[in-house]
Write a structure and sequence with these properties.
alpha+beta; six-stranded mixed beta sheet
Length: 483
């Protein structure tokens, strides 16, 4: 009889997790829960409006809808009530990659750079919007944003699709002259860092500000230029930061061109209507909150999921170990953010945010907050125990007896072993006579045990199915009438 449909415990691919009590979450009581609650409510707006089952099969699924609908109508003004909200509707699980104890965090920000709407001698590096000949399988051209992972193609003729141009080809002019330019920047380094961060504020030469956000990519995997500098022994690993990369590129313009093209990935932007006071918009479609928004692996996690991140990070200076205990909300993603305990921390816009985020490459401990409807302990109690294995039942019905052990028991109890057949005894005596005498003769009981051991008879096999030739079909001649 098949098992009934039951809710299985939570399963996040490639991860391990341990349920915790709130008192076991280090630094939980020290955080500003009201700030986290406000960021969570921002994520709840699109979540609470969702209808039907989600299109993907992530672990949390649509479970955030219930707490989000409660938060949507619950305006809080103090941290105590905000903390009580999370403790009432969520359960903490310490999560990490399978076989590892900690996760990994980096930082990102929104650069503020100079630019122009028109090309001139100072601003001659174009910022491109998404080309019309860029295609992703399963996605149409009218989508608001194309996936940031996977193969991307360009169409040649009516049907032929080939991989899209890489960074070197685009920088050499593969798509210039098509009217794709949003604006123009001072140098390729500014463009590269804007592409890495996924957004930028462009201060135009006419005094206005232009906001651009990620829209699509060319399909090639992201290659960190910082890692290449470390492998080439140009910058030591312990000194690596975005500021170090920028300084080296400014001092080595020719080497910067070669280094930049090692990263074949290229990002296309779209213009967004945001004011100077508005924060950048993440992949969830809501404004990011500095110090509370994180980018996560969207293949594993649902936008709006709260994560409590704890560790020691260089917030105040490059060598400082500032205690970091903060509840953060998943509202963005990135091609380099892969894994169940991997996050990119958003620090806001400007040079200072860039300095802080640029020096973050550190281990940290992750606690994911899941709705109580997904309690893995409660679900585990409802999982039925598997049926007893058939082999155990057979062993009980047909116990196997070892003849040697049984004979040894009989000898130990004083019973005489059965006499062997005369022919077997004669052959044994003849074989014993031919062997040279040994220093110590075996015990008589052992000789009798070996002689009395019965020889197992072969188990008869079932008769083979007889080969019966199929009856020969007699074909009757057909007669045709011709006119």
């Amino acid at each position: 009889m098949p098992y009934p449909q039951i809710a299985l415990p939570l399963e996040i691919s490639g991860s391990q997790y341990v349920p915790l009590a709130w008192s076991q979450v280090a630094g939980w009581s020290d955080d500003d829960h009201l700030a986290a609650y406000r960021a969570f409510r921002a994520s709840c707006r699109p979540i609470a409006a969702q209808q039907g089952d989600p299109s993907d099969t992530k672990a949390l699924g649509a479970s955030l809808r219930d707490p989000c609908r409660i938060a949507k109508g619950l305006e809080l003004s103090d941290g105590t009530r905000a903390r009580a909200f999370f403790e009432q509707h969520f359960l903490p699980l310490r999560i990490s990659r399978l076989g590892e104890a900690e996760g990994f965090v980096t930082g990102y920000y929104e650069p503020i750079i100079d630019g122009s709407r028109t090309q001139n001698e100072v601003y001659n590096v174009p910022v491109y919007r998404r080309p019309s000949n860029l295609f992703v399988r399963g996605t149409n051209q009218s989508s608001a944003g194309l996936p940031n992972k996977g193969q991307v193609y360009r169409k040649i003729g009516r049907r032929k699709l080939v991989p899209y141009y890489d960074r070197a080809e685009i920088e050499d002019g593969a798509i210039e002259g098509r009217g794709l330019e949003i604006c123009w920047l001072r140098n390729q380094t500014d463009l590269l860092f804007s592409q890495i961060q996924g957004s930028a504020r462009v201060q135009l030469d006419d005094g206005s500000t232009l906001r651009i956000n990620y829209d699509a990519h060319n399909g090639y995997p992201y290659t960190p230029v910082g890692r290449i500098l470390i492998e080439r022994n140009i910058i030591p690993k312990e000194q690596m930061s975005m500021q170090k990369i920028r300084e080296w590129m400014e001092q080595n313009p020719e080497g910067a061109d070669e280094l930049r093209r090692q990263n074949k990935s290229y990002v296309f932007f779209r213009e967004v209507q945001l004011s100077d006071k508005d924060e950048a918009v993440g992949a969830q479609g809501v404004p990011l909150t500095p110090g509370r928004s994180i980018a996560v692996d969207k293949a594993l996690h649902v936008y709006g999921t709260p994560f409590f991140i704890e560790g020691e990070l260089p917030i105040e200076s490059e060598r400082s170990k500032t205690p970091f205990h903060r509840l953060m909300i998943a509202q963005d993603t990135g091609s380099a953010i892969v894994g169940p305990a991997r996050a990119d921390l958003y620090f806001g816009a400007g040079a200072e945010a860039g300095r802080v985020s640029g020096r973050l490459r550190h281990n940290a401990r992750f606690v994911i907050l899941i709705p109580k409807s997904l309690d893995p302990v409660a679900r585990g109690r409802k999982v039925p125990v598997p049926d007893e294995r058939p082999s155990e039942k057979i062993a009980k019905l047909f116990p196997q007896i070892d003849p040697l052990k049984e004979q040894a028991k009989d000898i130990k109890n004083g019973a005489k072993p059965a006499e062997a057949a005369p022919a077997a005894a004669a052959s044994k005596d003849a074989a014993t006579a031919k062997q040279p005498p040994k220093s110590a003769a075996p015990a008589p009981a052992a000789q009798a045990l070996v002689a009395a051991t019965p020889i197992a008879k072969p188990v008869p096999l079932p008769e083979a199915r007889p080969k019966i030739a199929p009856p020969r079909e007699v074909r009757r001649p057909r007669y045709y009438r011709y006119r």
